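assembly run, all chains below
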Amino acid sequence: MARSNDPEASPFRGQTITHATVQASPEVKADGGGVPVVAMDGVHFTWPGRPRFSLSINRFAVDAGDRLLLLGPSGGGKSTLLSLLAGIVKPQRGSIGILGTDITKLSGPARDRFRAEHFGIIFQMFNLLPYGTVIDNVLLPLSFSNSRRANVEAASSPAKEATRLLTHLGLSPDEVASHRASSLSVGQQQRVAAARALIGGPELIIADEPTSSLDRGHQREFLDLLFGDIANSGATLIMVSHDETLAENFTHVVRLEDFAQMERGAR
Amino acid sequence: MIVLRLALQSLQARWLTALLSILAIAFSVMLLLGVEKVRNGARQSFADTISGTDLIVGARSGGVQLLLYSVFRIGNATNNVTWKSYEDIASHPDVEWIVPLSLGDSHKGYRVLGTNQDYFKYYRFRGDQPLEVTQGEVFDDLFDAVIGSEVARQLGYKVGDKIVIGHGLGSVSFLDHADKPFRVSGILEKTGTPVDRTVHVSLEAIEAIHIDWQQGAPIPGQSVSAEQVRQMELKPQAITAALIGLKSRLAVFRVQRAINEYRQEPLLAILPGASLQELWELVGVAETALAVVSAMVVATAILGMVTMILTTLNERRREMAILRSVGARPATVMGLLTTEAGVLTLAGVVLGTVLLYVSLFFLRPIVDRLYGLNLAISAPTSGEFMTLAAIVLAGLIAGLVPAVLAYRRSLADGMTVRI
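ok done. output:
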């Protein structure tokens, strides 16, 4: 269940939090022991060197197993929010709890490791190292995460798991595995990116407009495959988009402007 | 493993620019080491110019000057040594041999040296090598000349050719000794020393061609023909310098002192080795300049490599963002770039060293023939290894620049790459 606060409220701590209601779908699982997968509180962030831009979030929480669609206009701070969640940047104020760990308390390298262990990330485009083979691209996260490698090796082998994921996502590993990533079509590249995000079963999948470079037919197909795999692994999905028509596929839909204030620019 | 493989593949994907960077470094390293080899070769050739001679005697002037005109045939003597002094020194109990040198005339720009046959017996170069006559023989007749290899090659002389000695030292003589032509009796083997550029005649011949001269010009109406001069007693009045070999090297300082304190005439005796060293210190400035220039070329090549890495940095921000998204630390990203710079520099250094030895192998005979420079093909010295290591280190340090930039950008980019 995702909650967000009143956009009018001050972004700072100690303010009353209004829970903007988000339609909860019936199939939401009530697992996770009550601890939300994501819990952001009183977060305030400005990009280094760009003090005029700031993003403030009073409260934002996501429960385990959710498939959350985060809507917002382009340039609306969605990507900044994802960077904060993934621990790539650190807010100046506030706490970001991921799986019960406040990652703002972690050092930079520890956040990097935390991300490697618990996150799968899919970008809008340019997801792959173009000169690397497809299989190397899929296996890349295992070089940085011991637990994900252990997860994979407990069941099978890294190569086999990569093959399984690629097959599941509708790619024929025999044909593509040893190809360079740059030789693939954009749609195929996004599937490889999904396989990379999913390998080793990270708890959180973050996707930044992963379908915007695909045509509508392929969007549908890609999301179906992605959701199928996420349902298998029990991961939580947070996906941002500006495309409201995708909403029907998700358990929750929130708008960024409903719980975050963003300031940019001209003053 | 995968990360390293991907880094190598990244480099492979940019193979052309990477190869150019490696080549630039390789050529600069080759130049640097090559200059070092030439430097050592030149220093060695220089020191090899004369050996086996314990003392050089001339009129009192400076040690370097005496060395220059007596051995290198550069410049002029300020004064002569009288024959009497020469004979006195020759009779010194410690002196084993003494070779007179008489300079002052030239042939088409090449110096003419009046000496005796002992010169060919005692002059040594490059360790203990004696002069060898490749064609003909050492002068026997009064008007015989033995020429150095370069004289023979440049002027196309063969044994038996007639040559005319010009008076004075210009390359074009307005006054010459045309009435007394010489015959080339022998051609010396190449030595890589000033001997190659010298025309050797006997001391008596020098006397003979000047017998009807006074004050640097022929005495009008008093010409003495070549046939007449053969009948005359040709005892030299003076010589320019003399090479001395001692019975024992231990006596060097004693004899030197005796000559320097010779009362009848102000004379100077020098130890060739010491004066060569002194002279080299003068010449060595140019040599240092050369080394500095080649070091700058290396620095330029490294800068070029950093530029190459920097220009690819923008297109590689995607790469950085992806690596960070899967959990690579900024340190890993930095490490990759620094390693890349290190690998490129190392490859350049290795390639440059290999290229140097390959080209040394092929150019050595040519350089020896053209310049008389003996370039030794020897393993790099420890100093050269240190230089090479320093270059790799410099490449690594230079690689930190793009690495730090990439690090800062990867922090500022967050998850999105703004290209």
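The domain at 3-263 of chain A is CATH 3.40.50.300 (Rossmann fold).

Chain A has one domain: 3-263.

not gonna interpret more than that til we talk
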